[in-house]
Amino acid sequence: CMCLFIEAALLALMEKTGYSMVQENGQRKFGGPPPGWEGPPPPRGCEVFVGKIPRDMYEDELVPVFERAGRIYEFRLMMEFSGENRGYAFVMYTTKDAAQKAIHMLDNFEIRPGKCIGVCVSLDNCRLFIGSIPKEKKKEEILDEMKKVTDGVVDVIVYPSATDKTKNRGFAFVEYESHKAAAMARRKLIPGTFQLWGHTIQVDWAEPEKDVDEETMQRVKVLYVRNLMISTTEETIRLEFSRFKPGAVERVKKLTDYAFVHFYSRDDAVTALHVMNGKTIDGSSIEVTLAKPANKESNRRNHQKGQGSPTSDGLLFQSKENGHSATPTRPLNLPTRFNSNHNSSSQEVERCIFPFYPGTNLSAISMYSLKPSYFCSAVTLLEYYCNKNGWGPPEYYLFSTASQDGKLLLIYKVFVTGAGSTFMPDKLCTVLEDAKELAAQNALWSLGKVSSKNLALVSFSPCYLNVWRFSVSHFCSCIRQIGKKLQKDRERESKRTDQKI
Q1: Which first-to-last residue range defines the signal peptide (predicted)?
Q2: I need a surface site. Which of 28, 201, 341, 484 has the fewest CB within 10 A?
Q3: Cβ atoms 304, 207 nearer than 8 A
Q4: How far is the first Cα of the chain from the last one, in angstroms, to the nearest whole number?
Q5: C-alpha–C-alpha distance, residues 54 and 234, integer Å
Q6: Model confidence over 441-464: pLDDT tens digits?
Q7: Range of 194's domain?
Q8: Residues 289 and 234 reside in one and the same domain
Q9: The domain boundary residue, chosen from 88, 121, 154
């Protein structure tokens, strides 16, 4: 009966609006184009992403809400095989102004009592990240191979290795002519089912370039410098970029093989851009561009989230090196205590170990029934929030590289399917568990579930900190020390306390 009711409601909506509706590839499309539309689809920037939609809510309720912001070109609701929606949708308006109005009007809008939706700009991503590529392959070889196995390839972006400029970094970015072409290529190249040059490749969406308005770009006084040698120092960069005008550089921040060069004036930054782009520093040809600023709040809430490094003028300067962004200013020590932004005032749960007595009554519970204050692991907290928002479990992809002294360094890339977001931290780890914890921590920070002020380092006793690294004997010794402190409590217990624990 409910299915018939929903079907009747959708038919009534189509009859009232004149829009068509078709379901394909796990999504239901309303419109695209709307009745009487002539010409090409709306330009980039006209689409918004809608999250946290109740699973039993459909177009007959959603479309009238989103029509308040302007004329809808296309409404795409993601669907499950069961007939429920997947909790998110994409709404394309006929103008950018309507899309921006929808964000301001409907973000955090209470669509049902106690149920608020999230609305943010949707970026039409046409770029794929391809990992596990043989490092000896050149750009031309990778481009030719990708054109053979996928359609619509426009370009390939390959970065040289930080330690050996004759080799690539083991990954590339492939640009396609449209989002649809990129999506079809991703489906064909999914991990574990496709090989290039005898290697099983890793495929994911690349973090899209963020659109920045011209007025904001006209104020930028920071240059992003790529393809530096690891050995190149900040002082060398300062001297090279000051040659055309001594004293023009305010400061330099170098991270591995890329850097941000801050100038006192906009004119000097633009001049340095034209003078230095393509120049050689310490034997390496560098690439120089204007750093892209983004408002902190809009950057945090964008569903294709990146990271950034705050500057003195309150802007975030993004870098797309390595498929992720520049160093965020937040504590990265492990382990860390995480608290929700919305529950930052809640009392923190004390971290302790208590004896378990035989016969104690136990009740089975779900971790999702607990409050975030009960979690100290970023991996657990990220899983908790993904489940809470109906995004599905986070997917972790492991990558490695070698340090200058030959140590194996590890880093995880995290993909949150329901949020349509990919995250990668800007630090590498020598221990697998640390790499995963750091990746989850970075994803939580980028999703806005954890703010830098709530990332407080916990003062653990040694027996609680990185337990897996302690020998069994050391761990047992710590437990015995705790047992001594609990001796007085045990003496007040019944005779059962005399049994061995």
Answers
A1: 1-20
A2: 484
A3: yes
A4: 57
A5: 51
A6: 888 887 765 544 344 333 333 333
A7: 127-205
A8: yes
A9: 121
